[in-house]
Structure formats: structure tokens, C-alpha cells
Design a protein that fits this description.
Number of strands: 12
Helix content: 25-40%
CATH superfamily of the largest domain: NAD(P)-binding Rossmann-like Domain
Number of helices: 13
Strand order of the largest sheet: 8-7-6-9-10-11-12
CATH topology of the largest domain: Rossmann fold
């Protein structure tokens, strides 16, 4: 029986060909909206989405033939994964496709902030030449804490091996100390409390779930033993923006580098037009570096994300 697959975003011909060679019929509807999806999902065995609209109970209930739902990327917060699982539908994502991009971008944000590269660049372009005011901080000898040690956190950790820093890794699922010693001798598993008490640089690599929403809030930041640099390339809502702005004002954080903010829309291609005061402060601060949710957005990862997911879909169907 031919398996039917619906892509709700554009996809390269080579990926379509691979699925066709595996016996699948592929439909591509990059302009499809939520209501249209509800009307057609019943005929498909697999659905491939990004984050333009939610894949909720209504979609899943109407997808009577669905065997898998694929997300091009890592974050699964727009898909009701638990409900899909109860319906026997496999939910797939492809973090392997952009983990290297995220790891590299996180290093870039770290250096841009610690070495004051972004600020110095802007000043030179505006006619200023200030050396002492742009004296940076070396990563060597510092303690870097990584919260979330899946594909993205591990990719960042691998790139820290040559910096001469201590790396502490915490993951809610736990970490195998023996495996670390063999694979990443420069990384030490730690508790969340140990990370908070030791880190000079703190990088977030967790999915957005009920448990991680506003994980970094006022109470979390108050437990930091020293003014650290905070880097977030995961999801904006993992950080309470009001608490972040207060911590920067009060000196409990020495800086923040953000690729994501909690005011992004579902498609991650814009932020809310009404900007809260805390976000305005963060935008104007000289102790922040900001990028528009592009940590995993490279030329290479664009195709690798889909290729990885196609492999998983073929195996599942």
C-alpha cells in the first residue's frame, strides 16, 4: 500500500525522490493553513511540519491514518506529543541536523559577549575608538555551565574542548559519569545547584516544556553565586524576561546573549509588536548580544534537517 506524506513547507526535490523511491506519495503544500489541514489530514499516513501552526488534538483526531508526525527541527512544543503517543502515532524530530550549527553559534555568542566584539564593532562603525572600555574577559580558566545535555548541549561542549575552561553539565534526565570520562574528558556531570554555584558562563539547551517554562526566573538567578554570562539558544520562554532584565540591572548577571526571546510568534519569524519594558531594556543594554533565532539556521543545516527526518520517516513507515 502506498504511504501518503504531506509536507506543509517547501522541500527539495532530492528528498521527495528518496521518499518516492521508498514507495511513498508526497504532497507539498507550503501555503496550507490550519483549517485546510484539518480538512485533508485524514488521507495521510505521515505529516511533516515546522512550527507555522499547532498540531493539536483536533488535527490528531482527524488524522485517522497517521502513523508519524515529523518536525523539521528540534523543538516539539507545537505538537501534542503525549496525545499523539496515546493514539499510537510516532513523533519525530531532527536535532541531529542542526546541532553543529547551534554549537558553533553558541560559541560565537559567548565570544561576542565576553570579548565585547559586538559592542566594539558598533562603536567603531559610529566613529568611536575605545580600547579600555572594551577590554574583554577570557574564557580560559572559567567555568562554563551547560543546562540540557542533549544534541545541542553536547555539541556546544565539544567545541569548548580547546578553550582551557572547566565545563559542568546538568541534564534533568541524568548523565553517565563513566561515559563522560571516555567521550568528553573536559566535561564533568553536575547537579543544577553545582552549576549555579560555580559557573562564570551559563548556556541553556533545553526543550520548552511545562517543566522548563521560565526555568530561569528570579529565584533561579538569585541562586547564582557570581555575576555570570547567560546564553540562551534554546527557547525564549525558558527565561523569564522580566527577571532577566532585573538581574542585568542589579548586576546579578554580567551579560546575556540571546538567540531566542519569549515574545516570538509561533513561526519564529517575528516578535510581538507591543514590546514590554523589560525587552526594551534588554535591547538597549550594552551588556547584551542578540540574534533573531538563527543559531541552527545555516546553509548546511537547512538540508541536513530534512535529510535526517526523511531517514527517520522511511524507517518508521
Amino acid at each position: 500500500m502506498t504511504r501518503r506524506i504531506l509536507f506543509t513547507d517547501a522541500v527539495s526535490p532530492e528528498h521527495v525522490q528518496r521518499l518516492q523511491e521508498a514507495g511513498c506519495r508526497v504532497d507539498i503544500e507550503p501555503d496550507m493553513d490550519y483549517d485546510t489541514l484539518l480538512g485533508v489530514v485524514a488521507v495521510y499516513d505521515a505529516l511533516v511540519v515546522r512550527s507555522r501552526f499547532p498540531i493539536d488534538r483536533a488535527v490528531i483526531d482527524r488524522g485517522v491514518r497517521l502513523r508519524c508526525i515529523g518536525r523539521v527541527g528540534a523543538g516539539m512544543e507545537t505538537i501534542d506529543v503525549d496525545y499523539a503517543g496515546r493514539r499510537g502515532i510516532c513523533c519525530l524530530n531532527s536535532p541531529e541536523g542542526n546541532r553543529d550549527a547551534v554549537g558553533e553559534h553558541t560559541v560565537g555568542l559567548m565570544l561576542a559577549l565576553c570579548d565585547k566584539i559586538a559592542r566594539a564593532d558598533a562603536e567603531v562603525r559610529s566613529g568611536m575608538w575605545r580600547r579600555e572600555a572594551n577590554r574583554g574577559m577570557e574564557v580560559m580558566g572559567k567555568t562554563v555551565g551547560i543546562i540540557g545535555f542533549g544534541n545541542m548541549g553536547a555539541a556546544f561542549a565539544r567545541r569548548l574542548s580547546g578553550f582551557g575552561c572547566q565545563v559542568l553539565a546538568y541534564d534533568i534526565l541524568g548523565l553517565d559519569a563513566t561515559g563522560f570520562a571516555q567521550r568528553m574528558p573536559h566535561v564533568r556531570p553536575a547537579t543544577l545547584q553545582q552549576v549555579q554555584s560555580c559557573c562564570d558562563i551559563l548556556s541553556l539547551h533545553v526543550p520548552l516544556t511545562d517543566a522548563t517554562f521560565h526555568l530561569v526566573d528570579a529565584a533561579f538567578l538569585q541562586r547564582l553565586a557570581k555575576p555570570a554570562v547567560l546564553i540562551n539558544t534554546s527557547r525564549g520562554a525558558v527565561v523569564d524576561t522580566d527577571a532577566l532584565a532585573d538581574a542585568l540591572r542589579q548586576g546579578r548577571l554580567s551579560g546575556a546573549a540571546l538567540d531566542v526571546v519569549e515574545y516570538e510568534n509561533m513561526e519564529r519569524d517575528s516578535i510581538a509588536s507591543a514590546e514590554p519594558e523589560a525587552w526594551q531594556y534588554i535591547k538597549q543594554s550594552q551588556r547584551t548580544v542578540l540574534t533573531p533565532h538563527v543559531a541552527g539556521w545555516t546553509v548546511e543545516s537547512k538540508e541536513r534537517l530534512v535529510a535526517t527526518l526523511v531517514d527517520k520517516i522511511i524507517h518508521t513507515l
